[in-house]
Design goal:
The protein contains ten helices and no strands. The protein has 216 residues and is mostly helical.
Length: 216
């Protein structure tokens, strides 16, 4: 029984990391366009840089898959845990699984540990754990993007506002999930350090979808 308990916690975390490690932007860029997006644009293996380099035709699937990675990682963590011990996954396991998913996206084992910033994957995790707060964050992201044109500023604004919505509007059942929401507000500015510098210097690029390489 003890082995089952251990496996019920380790397996979901391992699966979450492997799901996060799926380098959507890298694989789609190489497979369909012969381009490693990490060598172009901002060098980030995420949806924004994919759209910038390859266009919406490539970037939208990357965005949707990266969001889905985060959502399905949380869902599978709950299901796998239950299948082992027939108990609901606790907040600690969900927190660790969420962290493992983002870690996988940022340092993917399938792409030489050079991944993206985890914004879309965090959104998927948010939709799995705090659906209403996540939808609020999407709204804030959209408004800031329409006003400013900066994806980085929009991502950080949504991320920083997210824990306030979780705490004051849609409080979760466990305090560890509140801590996870606060961690999002800390994590995003850290991964956007270079963007913050460029924003302060006035050199940050505004969001402009590139032309798909297949169309040129």
């Amino acid at each position: 029984m003890n082995q089952l308990v251990v496996l019920s916690n380790l397996v979901p975390v391992l699966v979450a990391y492997l799901l996060g490690s799926i380098p959507t932007a890298v694989w789609i860029g190489k497979m369909f366009y012969g381009i490693d997006v990490r060598q172009e644009g901002s060098g980030n293996a995420g949806a924004t840089n994919t759209i910038r380099v390859l266009g919406l035709k490539a970037g939208i699937p990357v965005l949707l898959i990266d969001v889905f990675k985060g959502f399905i990682a949380i869902y599978l963590a709950q299901r796998i845990h239950f299948n082992f011990v027939e108990n609901e996954a606790d907040a600690t396991l969900l927190l660790v699984a969420a962290a493992a998913t983002v870690l996988g996206h940022t340092f993917p084992v399938f792409a030489q540990f050079k991944g993206g910033k985890g914004v879309a994957t965090l959104l998927g995790i948010g939709l799995g754990l705090y659906p209403w707060a996540a939808l609020g964050a999407i709204l804030i992201f959209t408004v800031v993007l329409l006003i400013s044109g900066y994806v980085s500023l929009s991502s950080m604004s949504a991320g920083i506002a997210f824990p306030f919505m979780v705490v004051f509007l849609f409080p979760p059942d466990h305090f560890l999930l509140t801590i996870l929401a606060i961690a999002v507000a800390v994590f995003l500015p850290i991964t956007h350090r270079k963007n913050i510098t460029r924003l302060l210097n006035g050199t940050e690029s505004k969001f402009r979808p590139g032309k798909s390489k297949s169309d040129s």
